[in-house]
Design goal:
alpha+beta, four-stranded antiparallel beta sheet, 44% helix, elongated
Length: 882
């Protein structure tokens, strides 16, 4: 009986078992202990002017409370300037204080509420370094006194939730916010909607991607004897200003008094470090010094899949005599602040058993585990790379003229050119970031690629005839024929500069992603990808680019389909469970906004319209695509190549979005297999190197290299074509064809090397979403170019000076829109194009110009009719209309 493909894929996975992700999230070490033999519970802690500061807190210096000892609050301030230094006392708080919220903000440490020996307080102050000591600045007081609350800084907003107003009171549900960006004189705490869950104190707060998180804690309920008892909570909540409170998945077990705010790592994880699970809460007076301490387990919450999983533990070594000398050992602390300092999370002091403090200071460094790819994956990847080089060598035999080097002798088959256009536009950005978008959000961005299909008939009917009839090598030759040399140079230079930036991003993205999750060295990835691509593009010209693109299209789409199949085979419950899980997570169109009058909202209409203009730029004004239109035998075949690309876009987009959704389902079912250190854009490489069988992983990694190289080779050849045609030949005519080819090869080598250097420098940059950044750049730099071609083809009145004014005005307008408005980046291309057209046409109407023949240069006269003159505002002549 025939086996289904999921069963076949599952059997493949069994033959080559997946490599498990690390179970540890942090490596632990210690800083110098505080200069106090006992230590403190609930001190204020944070970073002030670059130094680590611990202040206040409480302890039992004379014994245990069950022996009659009294809790004492403190006001001493300790400062640590470097991780390898020692603590020094730097001053005193305004008074003994502890059990408040402390948050590191740019100006220092914000100390909020707390308690002392007599009462809970509502005061708020900023602690900052000043010389060798400290200084304090008063901030607006809380609406009511508060201690044992949880707080976090989200952007420029401070949130404080839960806590108790008096020592004998029950916890509250309140949520208060203070906007730090407001002028100092107008700052005040706002009362926001209370948390719908249980009242709580000793909870853990967190901040991630503009949201405030609240985990666990303790509620106090009547014990039946006119007293209160603790109930430990598993609830988890998220608050956003736009969406209010949202209930999240419960924690696997209750946690209270864990270090807060919750540490973060990667793009989507928050960590609850230990805490009190409540197991021995009713036995404190019985166990006393026999208490085993608090939980050492670390829980990781993943914001995308809404899942919890264990990720290692805090260090715990009880020492030789834990009952009488607990500080000889190392215990997980509670009631302390988690302070982000110099790439580590610091847990200063805290409570390690009931009534027992520690002077120890723990330091946690986030771990990143790389996976060895193995020889089989290396062989697969190496075979692909050598194959690409072989195609370049084969095609080099026929590259002897600029026509062959830049246009392939106009003899390339239409289907190969269509696949080449598809591979050029489907860069490593698409290959990795589209699945990442679907994994992190939903399918709303699907409609960005639908616009490509809508653009195809426009290009074929209105633009393609001009490029073919004028027989151009560079698209910007048309701009000189239609306007003047200055407009041509502006267009060509803009294209070249944009392509240099684009190539750097396309080269950087897969390299940094693969190096993050595998044994690849990031610089080796960049150099390997760029070097081979430069070589086959230099020696093979556009023919090598097109034929390598054909192979790369097969490899990258095959890799995506294979990954999708293997992910689905690993999802428990089959296809039905996959669909149910994805729908429950809102991963299709459940949360899609189809229309909104708010131009800051990514609605479907906005995405489609914006992408229509963005793709108009790519398919009508970008040399790397337009160059393909003149590589076929005739206009009819060029049109077929455009349709080939357009018809491949939708099924390809479905594959990439489905792959992202499948990754979401897989990691929701297996959250422990996530890497807590990765960014969202690295989710596909993580799955490839950690979960795919040996050999298969090498093939899919080849797909990532293929996506990068297809774009890089196309851009290099088109940049060389633009430079040689628009600058070198234009200003130094009469050179031999062979000389021009050598010049083009030199440009490829120089630009390729320069881009490689830029990509290496980009390794240190942090881009939250490379797909968003890429689309934003396209709209910012391409709108003016698209507008110039619209002015040229569709109007008779526009002239060179007016077109330049429109282009410059378009760029300035977009800079202002980006800086001073919240308009969605998808609209940047539309704004840039329309602004260029409007300003360019208006300027052309106002400024006079010399007559110029427009025969065959506009849509109004493209068939060889009598010349049409641009008159501008010439006296006695009625201006022609567009």
């Amino acid at each position: 009986m025939a086996r289904s493909w999921p069963a076949i894929l599952a059997s493949i996975m069994l033959v080559f078992p997946a490599r498990a992700a690390t179970a540890e999230a942090f490596s632990w070490s210690e800083l110098a202990p505080l200069p106090d033999p006992i230590g403190f519970a609930a001190p204020f802690a944070g970073v002030a002017q670059g130094s680590l500061v611990v202040a206040g807190g409480a302890n039992f210096p004379t014994g245990r409370p069950w022996s009659g000892a009294k809790k004492i609050w403190h006001d001493r301030v300790f400062v640590l300037d470097t991780p390898d230094g020692t603590w020094r006392e730097a001053g005193r708080l305004p008074g003994p204080l502890g059990y408040g919220v402390s948050l590191s903000i740019p100006d220092g440490i914000l100390c909020i509420g707390g308690s002392n020996e007599r009462e809970h307080v509502s005061g708020v102050f900023l602690l900052r370094r000043e010389g060798a000591g400290v200084a304090f600045e008063t901030y607006p007081v809380l609406p009511r006194p508060l201690a044992n609350a949880a707080g976090a800084l989200v952007g420029t907003t401070v949130y404080v939730a839960g806590g108790i107003e008096r020592p004998d009171a029950a916890p509250g549900r309140q949520l208060w916010a203070l906007e730090l960006a407001a002028p100092a004189g107008s700052r005040q705490w706002r009362d926001l909607p209370p948390c719908p869950g249980r009242p709580r104190m000793l909870a853990v707060a967190g901040a991630r991607e503009g949201a405030f998180y609240l985990f666990g804690g303790v509620d106090l309920v009547p014990d039946g004897n006119n007293g209160l008892k603790r109930e430990y909570l598993r609830e988890a909540w998220r608050y956003t200003p736009a969406g209010g409170w949202q209930r999240l998945a419960d924690m696997p077990e209750p946690r209270a008094a864990a270090p807060t705010p919750a540490p973060t790592n990667g793009a989507a994880h928050l960590f609850v470090l230990g805490g009190d699970v409540g197991t021995h809460a009713d036995q404190v007076n019985v166990l006393r010094d026999e208490h085993p301490g608090f939980s050492a387990g670390i829980l990781a919450y993943h914001t995308i899949t809404d899942t919890w999983s264990p990720f290692g533990s805090l260090p715990k070594k009880v020492g030789p005599n834990p009952q009488t000398d607990p500080n000889a050992g190392l215990w997980p602390p509670v009631t302390t602040t988690a302070v982000a300092w110099r790439g580590h999370y610091i847990l200063p002091s805290g409570e390690v058993r009931p009534a027992v403090r520690t002077p120890r200071v723990l330091s946690a460094q986030p771990l990143r585990k790389r996976t060895e790819l193995g020889w089989l994956n290396g062989v697969t990847l190496g075979a692909y790379l050598l194959g690409m080089l072989g195609i370049g060598v084969y095609c080099a035999r026929r590259e002897r003229s600029t026509d062959a080097f830049f246009r392939g002798g106009q003899s390339l088959p239409w289907w190969a050119v269509g696949l080449s256009i598809y591979a050029t536009m489907l860069s490593s950005i698409t290959y990795m970031a589209l699945p990442a978008k679907a994994y992190a959000t939903d399918w709303t961005y699907f409609f960005a690629n639908v616009a490509i299909v809508a653009v195809a008939p426009i290009v074929i009917a209105l633009y393609l005839p001009f490029y073919r009839r004028l027989n151009v090598t560079s698209a910007y030759e048309y701009l000189e024929k239609r306007f003047n040399l200055a407009v041509r140079l502006f267009g060509s230079a803009s294209f070249i500069l944009f392509q240099i930036g684009r190539m750097a991003i396309v080269l950087y993205l897969p390299s940094i992603a693969l190096a993050t999750v595998s044994s690849f060295d990031v610089y080796t990835c960049i150099l390997l990808t760029a070097t081979l691509c430069i070589i086959y593009t230099m020696i093979g010209g556009i023919e090598a680019v097109v034929w390598t693109d054909v192979v790369q299209t097969v490899v990258l789409l095959g890799g995506a389909l294979l990954s999708l199949g293997l992910v689905l085979s690993e999802c428990q419950g089959g296809w039905g469970e996959f669909i149910r899980t994805a729908r429950d997570g809102g991963k299709f169109f459940e949360n899609t906004v189809w229309w909104s009058s708010d131009f800051a909202t990514a609605s479907v209409v906005l995405i489609f319209v914006g992408s229509l203009f963005n793709n108009l730029t790519s398919y009508t004004a970008s040399q790397d695509v337009v160059q393909r239109y003149v590589t076929t035998r005739n206009e009819k075949q060029a049109a077929r190549s455009i349709w080939t690309n357009a018809l491949m876009v939708l099924p390809g987009t479905v594959v990439f979005f489905a792959l992202g959704t499948a990754l979401y389902v897989f990691y929701r079912m297996n959250p422990e297999r996530l890497d807590t250190a990765i960014s969202t854009d690295q989710i596909l490489p993580l799955f490839i190197v950690r979960e795919l069988p040996l050999g298969v992983a090498g093939l899919v990694i080849a797909g990532i290299f293929a996506a990068s190289q297809s774009t890089l080779s196309s851009s290099l050849n088109s940049v060389a074509a633009a430079w040689v045609t628009d600058f070198y030949q234009r200003f130094r005519p009469g050179r031999t064809d062979r000389s021009n080819v050598r010049r083009a090869q030199a440009v490829i080598l120089i630009v390729g090397t320069f881009v490689t250097v830029i990509a290496c420098l980009m390794v240190r940059l942090n881009i939250a979403s490379l797909f968003d950044a890429f689309i934003s750049v396209v709209g910012m730099t391409g709108g003016a170019l698209a507008g110039l071609f619209v002015l040229g083809i569709f109007t008779q009145r526009a002239h060179g000076a007016g077109a330049l004014i429109g282009a410059v005005g378009s760029v300035i307008t977009l800079l202002c829109v980006r800086q001073y408005t919240s308009i969605n980046f998808f609209l940047f291309g539309a704004i840039g194009t329309l602004t260029c057209v409007a300003l360019g046409y208006a300027a052309s109407c106002l400024l006079p110009t010399k007559q110029k023949s427009l025969v065959g240069l506009t849509l109004h006269d493209s068939s060889g009719a009598e010349p049409v003159a641009v008159m501008g505002d010439v006296v006695g002549q009625p201006p022609p209309t567009s």
